[in-house]
Structure formats: C-alpha cells, structure tokens
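Bench log. Compound arrived from synthesis this morning; before running ITC I wanted a structural hypothesis for how pyridoxal-5'-phosphate sits in the protein. Inputs:
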Amino acid sequence: MILRRFPPMGVYETLFKFADATGQYMGDSGTHPWAQGYPLTTQIPGGPSLPTSVEVGHLDLKYPKATGEPPLLTAIVDYYNRFYDAGITTDNVAVFAGGRPAIFATLAFLLEDTAIAVESTEYTPYYDMLNVLGRQVHLIPSRSDNRFRPSVEQYEIAPGDGARRFMLVKSNPCNPTGVALGGSALKQLIDMFSRSESGALIDEAYEFYCHPEPDSALRYIEDIDQTNIFVIGAATKGLQVPGMRIGWAVAAKEHIEIFRNYSSFGMGGVSRASQLYVTELLALERVTQARSAIGKYYSEQRSRYAEGLAALGFELFTGTGGFYHWGRVPGGLTGDELNERLFRHGAGILPGRLCDMARSAGKTSELDDFVRFSFGPLQADSYHQDMQILSTCLA
Ligand SMILES: Cc1ncc(COP(=O)(O)O)c(C=O)c1O
C-alpha cells in the first residue's frame, strides 16, 4: 500500500453498514433512505419538468474550457445578478464537478498560515477534507446549549498558533441542522469575514430549500473582487440533478484565476454534456419556477415531518432551511442504536456523531443521541409509512 489511508465520508459509512445489514443499497426501491442527502429527481408539484435528453454536437466533444463553458458561466452570473443584485461577471465564476470539488479546491489552496473556523456541528465531509488537508481548525460552538445557533459574538475569534488569518467554512442553510442565516445576520457575518485578511467559504447548496425565501451571501457583498469570500453553489439540490455533477465557486477574479490554473493541470474542465444540461435548467423563467416550487414543497414536508417526529418524542432543533430534521432521539437511544432497529425495516438515519466536527474515532461524541432525518428523497405519500416504522422502532 503506497497511499495514505483514510475512511469514507460519514454518510457512506452508514450506507455500507446498511448494505451489510440488509443486502440492499439505501435508495433502492423498497428502502427508506432517511440517511441520504439527495433531493427528488422527478418533477415536484408546481415545479418545472426535468429534461430527458441533451443534444451533443461534435464541438461538444472537444475539451471544455478550464473554468467552465461560457453559456453556463453566463447563466450562473445572470441568476445571481437577477436574484441578488450580485454585480458579478463570468470572470467571477469557476465550474467544478459538483459542490464538494469546489469546496475541496478552495481549502486545498489556502495559504499555509490560514486557520479554519467551522461550527462544531456541520456538513460531514468538511471533517474529512480538513483532516486530509491537515488544516488547523478552530471550532465555533454549535451545540444543544445554544440550540445550534451560534451568536454573532461567537464568530468573533482571533487567530493564534502561527495562523495569521481565519477562513470561515459554513453551510447556509446548514446541513445537518437546517439553521439558515439571512438578512442582517448574514450581512453581519459577511462584513466580519471581509475584514482585513480574513475570508469565508459560504456553502449554499441548499439555497432554494428555505422558508419563507432563499437568500445568498452574494446579496451582501459590495465588490467580491475586494474580498476573500467564496460562495459555493451546485446544481445538486436546488436544480434536483445530483447525477449531473455540476457545482461552482463565485469569488474574486484573482481567485478564479487560481482555479483556472488548477483545472489546467489537475482537472481538465468539467463534462460539456453536463454543463449543457445544467445551462438549460438555469434559464431564468425556469429557475424562478424551480425556486418557488422547491421552497413550497419542502417547507410543507419540513412542517409535516416536524409534527410527526415531535409527536414520537424527538426533541427537534431544526431551522427553516434544508431538507433535514435535526434532533435528539427519545428514550435515551443513540443514533447508532436507532439505526440497528431501523435497518430491519429497510430504513436508516444519519447518526448525529457524524456531523460532530470535534469527533475522534472510538470516543463518545456530544451528538451520539442526535440524528439527521432526511426528507429530501421522499415522496409526499411516504409519510404515514415513515412514521409507522419509526414508531415501531421506538416502542
Ligand atoms: C452542505 C452541502 N454542501 C455541498 C453539497 C454538494 O455536494 P455535491 O458534491 O454532491 O454537489 C452538499 C451535498 O450533500 C451539501 O449537503
């Protein structure tokens, strides 16, 4: 073995355990994929349909441009300028093969003397990326005692131990908690991490999944070229196409140039066919319809499942965004113990410990009795069966 060893990201750990216990892949028909972070990939009520083909000519078989094809870059720019008055151009955007590659590239090329600030309850892969890249990490408390809603003062931190500056890494809406910052609270955070040499990576994968309305950091950035802010978006959730593998970073031109250089030696651009497909999804009229339909359908699902889970005894801390419920399991069970019971019914949740940025193998986590319940892939008519299975497993 000549490679460094590391385990799969937490969600996959759960998927593999599920497969071992049930002989099925979570997400196959007949399973109840509450651990999974994907949206419905079918037309939702009031939403636009999803194209079933994409036309590819011989020019599309050439190498793509390093930071993205001009029609997709233009569609992304038009989108942010239309909805958030972002004032960006195509020189501010780089396309990647999904949201995670955009996040990983940003973290990989940070200057050595940059420390990471991250909330203690966050998106599982941040943990793996920061570990593999060996970054110095400062945890901002996001726990049950602050209801997973750090106050603005808790982000006021000073670098130490050889670090000159901080880069905040934050999902907004947050996966797993659903806590969403918008309006003046988001503006305050952006202002705070635009000061001096600091920076922020704001991961807006769940932008559309927000009640009553989506918001974006791009609304509050005066001139992105003067900042170290990176806004990450993806077609994965909002546009309902995780399989297309398209994500992007919006940042200062000089940062986008670094991504272009990286792409030239390490990526070779992103599939043109996928870019063509996603360009179509971002047509302004279509995306306007998608934003409002996603917001409506998933807000209804969020409320319905909140009621059902609370009635079963879950103590919920969920915010107003995303497609997860975040809460404490009743009856003193841990997330892993609940999963053992759920697996027998072809169901599974994500144990909360996998969202603990402070976890270490073999040790207990503050989030052992928490779970993330995903309603992203669920059709509206699965609700009663979902509640039935949970109720049986908690009895
Ligand atoms: C917080 C967050 N960021 C980014 C992503 C994007 O992932 P992908 O690499 O699948 O586009 C996800 C998907 O699970 C996510 O939950």
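What the model suggests: Residues 37, 98-100, 123, 171, 175, 203, 205, 234, 236, 242, 247 surround pyridoxal-5'-phosphate (CB under 6 Å). DSSP finds ten helices and eleven strands in the chain.
ITC booked for Thursday regardless.
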